[in-house]
Amino acid sequence: MSVKKLLPKICLFFGLLSACHLQKQDAPKTLIHTKDYEVFFKKMTSAQENLSAINQEIEFWASRIRRGNHSHLYYNKVASQLAKRFRVSGDPSDLHQSDSLLRAADSIAVHQHVGSLHNLVYNAITQHKFQEALNLGLKAEKIGERRYISHLLLTDIHQELGNLTLASNYLAKLPNKGSFDYLVRKSKLTDAQGNLDSAIFYMEQALAKVSPKSQNDLYYWAKSNLGDMYGHQGEVQKSYKAYLEVLNFNPNNYHVWKGIAWIAFSHDQNTTEAKRIIQRILHNTRMPDLHLMLAEIAEFEGDQQTVETQLQAFKAEISKKEYGNMYLSPLAKLQADYLKNYEEALKIARKEIQNRPNATSYALNAWILHLKGQSSAALKIAQEFVEGYTEEPEVMYQLGIIFKANGKHEQAEKFLEQAHESSFELGPVLSQQIEKELKSLRKSEGIAQAISSK
User: Fold this and answer.
1) Is the CB of residue 29 less than 8 Å from the CB of residue 265?
2) Which of 32, 197, 199, 437 is disulfide-compatible with 191, CB 3.0–4.6 A?
3) Segment (H or E) for 57
4) How confident is the model over 153-197, as pLDDT tens digits?
5) What does the angle CA 4 – CA 5 – CA 7 come to, to the nearest 5 degrees?
6) pTM, rounded to two decimals
């Protein structure tokens, strides 16, 4: 999975929700131990403490603007701190304020420059406004100033849009093929192309470019990404070790805490510990997708009431207009899988295709059509826009079900087997469903072979 992936991983398995209790499989060997990270857990500071220094910076630069100094540099400073505050607080209104200040900075600058444009691109990517990000990135590239940064950003944007050839072309324009910037993007692009082993190799090469001794944020950013990748590869022990190293540097890295909570749930099936970690994160910051994770854990435990409570909490949060496009995909799945509101789900899914026309977006559209009972239309989309363009485990599951519904059992089995190889990434709920689907396919194949042999 890529997220899923500079961006945090969103688990969306609403189609499996039912009142039936899912029987747990034999518990696997325990991997996590609270003694490994309890000291970091206790060092997690409150949201208010985390925001204190940022708020002081915002006030410092904002006070200069209030005194009548309308330098574009001051506007950029405040905007930058607001974007930083969003990463801590999770409040999307900070990004909207940041955007407003950056546009103001761009309008009052005496000479056209790209600093504000680049920051607007960063914000647009964070808000999943990928078409807007593309337009801003191209505008910055045309100006010509700091073109290196423009090319980095355009590489990122085209990858998100599914334009992997264009992303590769922009990556090729980078002058230093051994730099951290290049290797990180080479890793992400290689992962998007379906070669996880090579993606890990490039990220490890990028990590080697920075030293942990310097307490470099880039080192620990790359380390946390490697933790994600190791998990996708099934190397959960290595993933856990990487996460612990990051927490030793920064106990407030919520993405890493989420990763450890996922290991507790998906690998160890220790739902109590997973929930303890998630609730602590939610106490400190707004991360709507954590409600999805709590819903999935509740489904595994057979607690349907909590499933409904958590899904409604997620829907209520991300329905706020400030989130804009940030959660279109999970909202579409919620509407289709849980609320059975297929028309609304399709409307949202089509908006996501306009915003980010990659294989995953088309797979979502096909999945909703299948749930609606239009499996032949779903198959057509899957064959034209999805098959062969991504190897995301959840998409492989969706393809397996769509192909099965259309009587293409051999291909369906292939997709489901591929999805099942990523059981840790998909989690125990979906993994059990995949096993059930595979057994059903193989049973029907056995019956068909027995009949044909008579």
Assistant:
1) no
2) 199
3) helix 47-66
4) 999 999 999 999 999 999 999 999 999 999 999 999 999 999 999
5) 100
6) 0.89
